[in-house]
Design goal:
Layout (H helix, E strand, L loop, with lengths): L16 E2 L2 E2 L5 E4 L2 E4 L5 H21 L5 H12 L13 H19 L7 H7 L5 H18 L3 H7 L5 H10 L5
Antiparallel strand pairs: 1-2, 3-4
Helix pairs in contact: 1-2, 1-3, 2-3, 5-7
């Protein structure tokens, strides 16, 4: 994979060999469950999470339709609030991000049998369940704390740099400057 530097991409990329064999160049790659793309945008990974949430939500709604509200909320928290690698998302379109938020809200409505247009903030408050933004903020705060506490000197150097895109994003999300 060759990463673009802003709008600049190399005109010619020589073939790269490993043990005498040409390596295939790809535009995207799944690494530890996170989709990395050559344009360094997170839309593909957010879309992966949105589709996975739809699948998990439909499975929960089908298999546990007759369970109590408390059981459904517990299952929702266990299966739909993971947002694996969401703390790494810093470069994405609002459209893609909002599609995931809407999917999260709709899965909760569907699971609890709530009307399609009921208030998201009310339904989460009444169920004593974190909304989408709270989950993302918690994940970001967690990775930021773990990164700051790390003995790794490279992470220590990056985490407190005010010009670091991750730091700017973490701070903005944590203090609610952008949802």
């Amino acid at each position: 994979m060759v990463f673009a530097a802003g709008n600049k991409t190399p005109k010619h990329i020589p073939p790269i060999k490993l043990n005498g064999k040409d390596l295939k160049r790809v535009a995207k790659f799944k690494y530890l469950g996170h989709i990395v793309s050559e344009d360094q945008k997170d839309d593909l990974d957010i879309e992966r999470e949105r589709r996975a949430m739809a699948v998990r939500g439909n499975m929960l709604a089908r298999r546990f339709a007759r369970c109590s509200k408390e059981v459904k909320i517990t299952l929702f928290k266990a299966y739909c609030q993971t947002f694996y690698t969401c703390s790494l998302w810093v470069n994405y379109t609002l459209k893609t991000y909002n599609a995931l938020r809407v999917q999260y809200n709709n899965v909760f409505r569907m699971l609890l049998g709530l009307p399609r247009y009921c208030s998201a903030s009310t339904m989460f408050a009444e169920a004593h369940t974190d909304d989408f933004y709270a989950i993302v903020r918690k994940r970001i705060a967690s990775i930021y704390r773990r990164t700051r506490d790390s003995a790794n000197t490279i992470l220590g150097t990056i985490v407190d740099r005010f010009d670091c895109p991750m730091y700017k994003h973490w701070v903005a999300k944590h203090v609610g400057l952008n949802k």
